[in-house]
Amino acid sequence: MPCKLLNLCEYETHKLVRIQSVRLGSLKWTFNGVILMFICIMMLWNKEYQEHDYVVSSVTAKVKGVALTSLPDVGDIVWDVVDYSGPSQGKNSFFVVTNVIVTKKQRQGKCPEVPPYGKVCRTDEDCVKGFWNQHSHGVQTGACVKFDVTRKTCEVSAWCPIESKKKPPKPALLASAENFTVLIKNNIRFPNFNFMRRNILPEMTESYLKRCQFNRHTDSSCPIFRLGDIVKEAKENFSEMAVEGGVIGIQIKWDCNLDGFLRNCLPKYSFRRLDEKESNRTLYPGLNFRFARYQTEKDVEERTLFKAFGIRFDVMVFGEAGKFSIIQLIIFIGSTLSYYTLCILCVSFVDENHIRVVKKSHKKSLQEVKPISVHPCKDDTGHLSAMVGVLQKGNNIIDKPSQVLPRANRPAWCLCGCCLPSTHPQEQLCCRQSIGRCITTSSLFEQLVLSRPLLEAVLLYREPLSDLTEGEQRIAALRNCSYRQYISWRIGAPPRESIPVMPSCSVWRIREEYPSQEGEYTV
């Protein structure tokens, strides 16, 4: 670290040596060509030269199909789209009924509650008039009535008879729903590029849509899907899934290239099951809801209750579009070339008598980076002048440990106990390679690195007319000079083309002695 107050005005340059060698010149240009080829391949493969935008979409679905079922105690029922579509399931979803439990001719009246929802009783005292809960089918009347030959339950005011079946019939009554078809209309837009498209492509005619059906191998662009094929694509069995119902996800992915003659923007469909299919692994398997059909018989309102099981199809749209951008191209080239720029650092440990030269790493802490070379320490004039200054003042240089307490939150890479955590790998450096005393506890550290009279003398030696009046500028100058003193003491003259790095414990000890008022440090 420089000790000069005007160090920002310094300029340095490197000497260039030109060597006439066919072998070295060929090796240089071969190496540069390989790097350039790699950069170009990665740029084209990942389309790093493009600006990107995410899709905004809307989805509508139209289901078609008719089924005939024969229900016990009801007879033959024809199911069309109005019957089996059920209530709205929310945005970008549609529902198809595949199985039902029917409770016929329900009327408003009084009847025994069905166990286990109804309380088993012996007398009227066991029932509470007006009581109900979330599992009840009605409101208790306060009477205890006969439910079957062996049991009595509390009577309720409800739609009677109460639904008693719990498990859906097997096989599913509307298993033929696998032959129903659905037309999915998906409109998308990429706002940044003002680009719009839909999955019914411009080349699709009315006659084509009347006869096409999605097939991954023969017609993967058709927006009309057979429900059985959707479930099969999700690796499920429609007949099994139809019994209790479930949820299927229809994923539409738009991966669009909007560059000139390379323009390509077509949907890709994929399918998967979204719910847990095993009945023994979930408390409430499948999917179901209830609806009723009402009629009047002899001026008395009746209804037929249907507990409908079915499959809900959720349409999920994902997409990203890319278009050439000169700004993105420049950013990619700059960031890629900077990746190959090598930064050489040198470090010194108090328990070693040499200097390590290492490469800067963006992932591994500097404490763990293996050296690429090892060099002996070389004293410089700054270090020698500092020693002379200490001896002339008659200071006692016998090593008496100073009271520097270990830090409670020391990181794992710290072996001296006095370092502070850092998120930057190049700052994760301790003064030691093995567990032991910290260098900041040495009396020489106090005298050579932290001593204010010595630092002021060094500053005046380098800048005789510098102004050392109290203030933030003086503290910053003393702090920078303290950095330089440590490097001169422990590293000396660093190897060529390398940058000396101080350990975390020493840096923070200096900053504690000469702190910045704002608490921010650039060096």
Summarize the structure.
With about 525 residues, this protein is of the alpha+beta class. About 25% of the residues lie in helices and about 30% in strands.
Nearest-integer average pLDDT: 84
Proportion of residues in extended strands: 25-35%
Shape: elongated
Largest β sheet strand count, sense and barrel closure: 8 strands, mixed
Q: What distance separates the N and C termini?
A: 8 Å
Give the secondary structure arrangement, pairings included:
Layout: H1 22-45, E1 50-54, E2 56-64, E3 67-71, E4 75-79, H2 81-84, E5 93-112, E6 139-146, E7 152-160, E8 181-190, E9 195-198, H3 206-211, E10 224-226, H4 227-233, H5 238-244, E11 246-257, E12 267-273, E13 288-297, E14 300-324, H6 326-339, E15 344-348, E16 354-359, E17 373-376, H7 381-392, H8 443-450, H9 452-462, H10 472-490, E18 499-500, H11 504-513
Parallel strand pairs: 11-14, 15-18
Antiparallel strand pairs: 1-14, 2-8, 3-4, 5-7, 5-14, 6-7, 8-9, 8-10, 11-12, 13-14, 15-16, 16-17
Helix pairs in contact: 8-10, 9-10, 10-11
